[in-house]
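Notes from the 1:1 (GR / supervisor)

We went over the backlog. Supervisor wanted to see one worked example end to end before approving the batch request, so GR pasted a single chain during the call. The sequence is below; no edits were made to it. Supervisor asked that the structure be written out right there so they could see what the output format looks like.
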Amino acid sequence: MGKASTVSSLLCCPCRCLFCGVLSCLFSVLTCVFFSAGLVALVLYLLFRPHIIRATAVSADLSAFTLTPQTWILRYNLSLAVQLHNPNKRIALHYLDVAAHAYYEGQRLADAGLPDLFQDTGETSPLNPEFAGDAPLVGGVAAAGFRREAAEGATFSVDVKISAHMKLRLWVITVPGPKTQIDCPVRIQRRNATDDGGARPPPEFHPTECRVWF
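Structure output shown during the call:
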């Protein structure tokens, strides 16, 4: 009985040692990989010091924004000028599949495609989405909100959201970046189209900082 146990131990120990050695080696390799990746990420962060982009709605024109009674069809003509600033000193940005979406009372009115954009380090670039057409307002709450704002000086709360896929250029290397979301909630006074045939300039617009997240 003792001899059989000794033989079994002699046969099992090498296998056990081999298995433990493989696990130990695998653990060491994974630890080294994660440590190296973290170190590289830290070095790149300290080297490039990435900063989040800044977006500002600098001007807007709402030449038409009227609601048809009973049918609740909203007719709109809106243009917005957004200044996009890249504060990074070593990272240039590519914006691909850029699109803008206009919302009123939480309901999407229209979409507008925008051209792809390359932004060098420290550069400020314009984005100029335009929306024109008509869309139904669903629900009495949205129509009531329109009537309230129309009575309060015809200044309307419109939300313009801009999305884009981003690529980062680090010197000569281009790497995929995050999907960028820009949210510009603006208050715009409707232009009085009854005066001078609509030839008057747009009402004064106060620049608005947009929210940016990824």
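Supervisor's comment: Residues 56 and 209 are 5 Å apart (CA to CA).
Batch request approved.
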